[in-house]
Amino acid sequence: MLEISELPVVAREKDRSSSGISWGAAVAGAFVASALSLILIALGAGLELSAISPWSNPGAAASTVGGVALIWLVVTQIIASAMGGYLAGRLRTRWQSIHGDEVHFRDTANGLVAWAVGVVITVAFLATAANTITGGPVSTAAASKSVTSSGYGQDSNAYFIDRLFRSDHPGAADRDLSMQAEASRIFAHSPRDLSPSDTNYLATLIVTKTGLSSNEAEQRISQTLADASQYEDNLRKAAARILLWMFIALLAGAFCASYAATIGGRQRDHVRPI
User: Fold this and answer.
1) Are residue 41 and residue 109 in the same domain, yes or no?
2) Which of 149, 206, 263, 266 could bridge across to 217 with cysteines, CB 3.0–4.6 Å?
3) Is the distance from CB of 116 to CB of 26 less than 8 angstroms?
4) Helices 137-150 and 177-189, packing angle to 10 deg
5) Is residue 109 part of a domain?
6) What does the pLDDT look like over 110-119, one tens digit per residue?
């Protein structure tokens, strides 16, 4: 190979004035990483391993996410990011008059840029797919209609409010939507610790609706509040767990993309022209 001093002056000046980012190679690597991520997500969904689904499914609570699904999330990021980073390094423009340390840094930066663009593309696609599959504005309109017709809507406390007014003789005629709406507002105001006045008033509503005694109504309120608090705690812990593993997956993806870009760059530089 030619020494840097032996290269033509035009070639040296061109390398020194060129951008350190090969945008064509970085964007190509990003698209490949995004496509591979979607393929692996689809594979994980087919094998029931997906940790996060773009489809809305209230029945699949975040607490049901298993360890295998979270590991698959990390594996998906590692494979897709490494492939995108390698292509970003292998396809970039060859720098002939740049010092080896600078070339190494630029390759690392190209891989990191390819990973970042790929993550943005993947997230944008999944968000669009989720909005399309769940109906977008149609679902919002349906939810608004449900709130209007039921009096207290599909809020997170709806199930626990139904439990409060559950009687031994259920029937459509027994539903008092205005009473349940009022109870839902009380629940929403103090979901963990009701004031004594709110507790007494809510117990009165339950007694009127179900025919329970005052003590039984207060016991039902206490048990329902405890269950609601436990449910919220479980969701919060599951969400924190998923976010932690997402951080690990993205960090691993960034490292693999940057390192793979240096490998691709070295292989690109060792190719001798015929």
Assistant:
1) yes
2) 206
3) no
4) 110
5) yes
6) 999 999 999 9
3-state secondary structure the chain: CCCHHHCCHHHHHHHHHCCCCCHHHHHHHHHHHHHHHHHHHHHHHHCCCCCCCCCCCCCCCHHHCCHHHHHHHHHHHHHHHHHHHHHHHHCCCCCCCCCHHHHHHHHHHHHHHHHHHHHHHHHHHHHHHHHHHCCCHHHHHHHHHHHHHHCCCCCCCHHHHHHHCCCCCCCHHHCCHHHHHHHHHHHHHCCCCCCHHHHHHHHHHHHHHHCCCHHHHHHHHHHHHHHHHHHHHHHHHHHHHHHHHHHHHHHHHHHHHHHHHHHHHHHHHCCCCC
Please indicate, yes or no, whether residues 127 and 201 belong to a single structural domain of this protein: no
- pLDDT over 70 percentage in the chain: 70
Q: Are 118 and 261 in contact (CB under 8 A)?
A: no
pLDDT tens, 192-210?
Answer: 677 788 888 888 888 887 7
Two structure tokens written together for 142 = 């349906």
pTM (two decimals): 0.69
With 0-12 CB in 10 A as exposed, 13-18 as middle and 19+ as buried, what is 126?
Answer: middle
Is 171 a member of any domain? yes
- What whole-number distance in Å separates Cα of residue 73 and Cα of residue 51? 7
* Residue whose token pair is 């691993």: 252
Identify the domain containing residue 184 by its residue range. Answer: 151-232
Rounded Cα distance between 145 and 140, Å, is 9
**Closest by CA position to 81, among listed 118, 56, 128, 47:** 118
Q: Which two tokens stand for residue 137?
A: 């504005």
14 and 131 belong to one structural domain: yes
**Band of pLDDT at residue 263, cut at 50, 70 and 90:** very high
